[in-house]
Design a protein that fits this description.
By secondary structure, the chain is of the alpha+beta class. It has 3 domains: about 40-365, Sandwich (Immunoglobulin-like); about 395-445 and about 480-670, Immunoglobulin-like (Sandwich), CATH 2.60.40; about 720-925, Zincin-like fold (Alpha Horseshoe). It contains 28 helices and 32 strands. Its cofactor is Zn(2+).
């Protein structure tokens, strides 16, 4: 048995070209440069035989390739991908069979047909596309559909040394022999096979490959398939050729080759798999990878059950490469390249993720390149699914919970991503993983897994589009009767994936007739809530419902669906003595608001001894949603503050983590108002008892949950000015200053900001002196951190004014423009900072204007930092007066201050509505709690 697949595949000379014309519009648009070089499909490959001989010490490689192709459409050219740096020395084309002839009866010699009448074709010319990666061979007469050809090309290229892409080389010093050792490997994703050999470098062309590699006898070569034979080199006595078995049909980016003198550990995975695993590494790193086989086997067990089919190859080689420079692992089919640190990691996420790509990416591939959005999304989701099955983690650390709240935050901005495409890519990917998670819950895990098995079975040895994923899930949901006939998974998914926002569902109960109205709208935190076309945005939302008298948090079956409807009504709800919870366990990525009475019922239950009947994730969601809705202006802030009362008995870090995030956000929002001092007192009251209960030092064997909670509680108490901890920080700072070490790491980083914030002017001046006298041999990141804290942590206008005088007015040579920009940015961390910066700007306008008028970036940063963050009417008046007084003088920053004034008006409105409510609540809270210790 050569290898096992999901179903039996018999290799013939031809391959199926079904779906050849499928296109993924989204992906083509995202990769316009590559799509311009998309091949026409007039000819298609049916197999490759590749010969490669790299010379690692000399930095180049040579090779030949024979490509069997079939003519699909009449054409007078054959076009291949070949990078500009790949030198093509010789080429020819032979017609194996003319149009209309069949291979029936043809004898096979080895892997190739025995040809009785091969016919060389006459070529007219060849050319390279300027600034592209196409090689065009023009024929003297047109090629007719149905003809079968063999292309022969001889080529050479450079072994990359500065990057781990294409075919690359690197070296290390062997610890035993103290000699330099070279290795060569390949990383073909996403479109780098064309850097190594002329080919049809697109995912849809999945065909068998035979690979032959020349190597020094002292080295070992691996490729996608097991080695079939080794024979002497024709002209070089110390070299041999390794010939590897024919592969299954695969895309060119799945090709993998590695040649090295690394040592390996060899395993035969359990008898039911019969997979040969080898883990390769340097000899002195071998002990670090001894448990890799256990991780691989455990992950494969889950993955084979998930996909419903065995690992698709008879062997797997995993290499821990020294000096591997790629940002991500190279997941060639059957050959995985990793950084040494990745292979020795304590957990299993990285290696499991690479194993997922052996199915998703190699056995089936996205129609376009491997960084196709849903390929990445689905691979990450399946990886997390496997890790959850393997580790059975604490439910408080369920899938991506912290990431989900980051996604909420990003999509609730007026302007998501801030033109940062990196953030956009990851936020979109994370959101789409949550859509998969939602479907897993609402369809049920059994249906979801069977749908994925259907998808893999249908698309193996082929390519897929995003819609294929949803179609497979939909077909399985139909079989399992998990969706009403009028609903399709495709529609559900599209409503979430096509929109760069997330919804808010407001639940308003009618307690007399036991019904509720659910209304959806765009969820926005930033003010004003005036994004364009928001009334047009609607989602397919699963209404998963938990009632107080039937609290089953394991059932994700929707009570009903909001079918892109603005408002729906639900019936058969409990009376006014029982709460309901919509979207428990964050089943769908949306925020939920309730009427006042339902919030009160939830709080009453959370403060009772039955609190833990509501799972950790749902308690976290209730706290998160309440505070964020109040921050956004959609919920009375007294209700949000009430929802913190249950924290008195809460000891799960994941719940507290949401509170810590919101006291930071809300603290910034109310900073500078009289309410802020009371808010800080409230935080200290709430955290002091928790900190004292947890104890200052960790106990032997305590859980990560408690350790994380202690660290965070201490950090936030320090930030709030808790005197015992501030004195502790001051003492540590004193010892650091008095030491001979002039570098920041001598002081615990969590102490630096509290000292500059709550300490004396003398301590702040000592920090400034350290910056001014920072040694040239010191680490730049240490100076950066020190300066960042000096500027960002001070709540004393005297300190801030001194720093601005030195850096801006005196133009001290120790500070660069980058330092000044950092100072301006950091002063926005608190009201004392931006208020002092505003006063400095107003009082020194002429000097500052002259200083920065030819430095628009600095000028814009200054105006933005000094004028746009006020939250009250007093601040609005100050900025308005400055704008009127200096109108016409703002230059490039004119639009910034105009936008700032609009924003301040909105924040002022929020403050006028919410600060009195908060102050009243805080007064009552402080009155009923002992404040002597804080």
């Amino acid at each position: 048995m050569m290898w096992r697949f999901c179903t039996l595949l018999i290799f013939g000379f031809q391959i199926s070209v079904n779906g050849h014309m499928k296109r993924s519009i989204e992906l083509i648009a995202a990769h316009e440069m590559v799509s311009q070089e998309k091949l026409s499909g007039d000819t298609i490959p049916t197999s490759y035989h590749l010969f490669l001989q790299p010379f690692p010490a000399d930095g180049y490689f040579e090779g030949t390739v024979r490509i069997n192709v079939m003519v699909n459409n009449k054409s007078d050219v054959i076009i291949l991908h070949a990078d500009q740096d790949l030198q093509i020395h010789n080429y020819n084309i032979t017609q194996l069979l003319p149009p209309g002839k069949k291979m029936e009866g043809t004898k096979m010699v080895g892997n190739e047909p025995e040809l009785y009448h091969p016919t060389p074709l006459k070529l007219k010319s060849s050319k390279r596309v300027k600034n592209g990666s196409l090689f065009i061979m023009e024929h003297a007469s047109p090629l007719e559909p149905g003809a079968k050809l063999q292309l022969y090309l001889q080529f050479s290229g450079k072994l990359f040394n500065e990057t781990s892409e294409g075919m690359f080389r690197s070296s290390y010093v062997d610890s035993d022999t103290k000699t330099k050792k070279w290795f060569v490997s390949t990383h073909m994703r996403p479109a780098m096979a064309r850097n190594v050999f002329p080919c049809y470098d697109e995912p849809m062309y999945k065909v068998p490959m035979v690979v032959s590699v020349a190597r020094l006898k002292t080295m070992t070569a691996v490729s996608n398939m097991p080695r079939e034979s080794t024979k002497p080199h024709e002209t070089m006595d110390d070299w041999v050729w390794d010939i590897f078995r024919k592969s299954p049909p695969m895309s060119t980016f799945s090709l993998g080759i590695a040649i090295s003198e690394l040592r390996h550990l060899s395993y035969r995975l359990s008898s039911d798999k019969n997979i040969h695993l080898r883990v390769w590494t340097r000899s002195d790193f071998i002990t670090e990878v001894k448990n890799v086989s256990e991780k691989v086997e455990a992950s494969l067990d889950v993955l084979e059950k998930f996909w419903g089919c065995a690992f698709p190859l008879p062997k797997l080689d995993i290499l821990a490469l020294p000096n591997y420079k790629s940002k991500r692992s190279a997941d060639s089919w059957g050959v995985i390249l990793l950084n040494e640190s990745d292979l020795s990691e304590q957990g299993s996420w990285i290696i499991t993720n690479e194993l997922v790509y052996q199915w998703l990416g190699s056995l089936t591939s996205p129609l376009w390149w491997s960084h196709a959005h849903m390929n990445h999304v689905l691979a990450n989701y399946v990886t997390t699914y496997v890790i959850k099955k393997l580790n059975k983690p604490d439910p408080s650390r369920d899938w991506y919970i912290s990431t989900l709240y980051s996604v909420y935050y990003e999509f609730s901005k007026r302007y998501p991503y801030s033109n940062n495409t990196h953030i956009e890519h990851y936020t979109q990917s994370d959101k789409n993983e949550f859509v998969l998670r939602m479907l897993n819950y609402t369809l049920g895990e059994k249906t979801f897994v069977h749908g994925m098995q259907r998808f893999m079975s249908d698309r193996k040895f082929d390519t897929f589009t995003e819609d294929d994923i949803w179609t497979s899930l939909n077909e399985q949901a139909r079989v399992d009767k998990k969706l009403p006939q009028a609903i399709t998974v495709n529609e559900i998914a599209a409503s979430w994936i096509s929109v760069q926002r997330l919804p808010l569902v407001t639940v308003t109960r009618n307690y007399q007739d036991m019904t509720a109205y659910l209304r959806q709208k765009v969820y926005l935190r930033d003010r004003p809530h005036d994004i364009p076309d928001q009334e047009k945005l609607l989602w397919w939302i699963p209404v998963v419902l938990v009632k107080q008298d039937k609290m089953n948090f394991d059932d994700g079956t929707p009570y009903t669906w909001m079918k892109k409807e603005r408002e729906i009504r639900i019936d058969n709800l409990p009376g006014d003595d029982s709460f309901i919870i919509v979207n428990p366990e964050e089943i769908g990525p949306f925020v939920v608001n309730y009427d006042h009475h339902n919030w009160a019922l939830l709080l009453e239950y959370l403060c009772s001894e039955n609190r833990e009947n509501i799972p950790v994730l749902t308690r976290t969601k209730l706290l998160h949603d309440a505070w964020n809705l109040a921050y956004a202006g959609d919920l009375n802030f007294a209700t949000a503050l009430n929802m913190t009362l249950f924290l008195k008995n809460e000891r799960e870090f994941v719940v507290w983590e949401r509170f810590f995030t919101m006291i930071d956000h809300v603290g910034r929002l109310i900073d500078g108002s009289p309410v802020h001092t009371k808010f800080r007192t409230y935080v200290k009251i709430l955290l002091t008892s928790l900190y004292e209960e947890l104890g200052k030092e960790p106990e032997k064997g305590e859980s990560d949950n408690i350790a994380n909670l202690r660290r965070a509680t201490k950090r936030w108490l320090l930030s709030a000015g808790y005197e015992p901890l501030v004195r502790e920080a001051q003492e540590s700072f004193k010892q650091w200053i008095e030491s001979s070490d002039e570098k920041t790491p001598g002081l615990h980083q969590s102490y630096l900001c509290p000292v500059f914030k709550w300490g004396t002017l003398k301590e702040w001046n000592l920090g400034l002196e350290r910056v001014l006298q920072f040694p040239a041999t010191g680490k730049s990141e240490d100076r950066f951190y020190l300066l960042k804290n000096l500027a960002g942590c001070s709540v004393d206008s005297q300190k801030i004014e001194k720093m601005l005088n030195i850096t801006v007015l005196e133009q001290n040579g120790n500070f660069t423009d980058e330092d000044i920009s950092l100072i301006f940015d950091m002063l926005t961390a608190g009201a004392d900072g931006y208020k002092s910066l505003f006063s400095f700007l107003r009082n020194n306008w002429d000097i500052v204007k002259v200083r920065f008028e030819k430095k628009p970036n600095l000028w814009n940063t200054l105006i933005d930092s000094a004028t746009t963050l006020f939250k009250t009417q007093d601040g609005l008046d100050l900025v308005s007066e400055l704008y009127v007084e200096k109108q016409g003088e703002f230059g490039t920053a004119e639009s910034l201050i105009k936008k700032g004034l609009i924003k301040i008006k909105e924040e002022t409105k929020w403050s006028n509505e919410n600060l009195p409510v908060m102050e009243k609540w805080l007064d009552q809270y402080i009155k009923t709690n002992d404040v002597r210790s804080v």
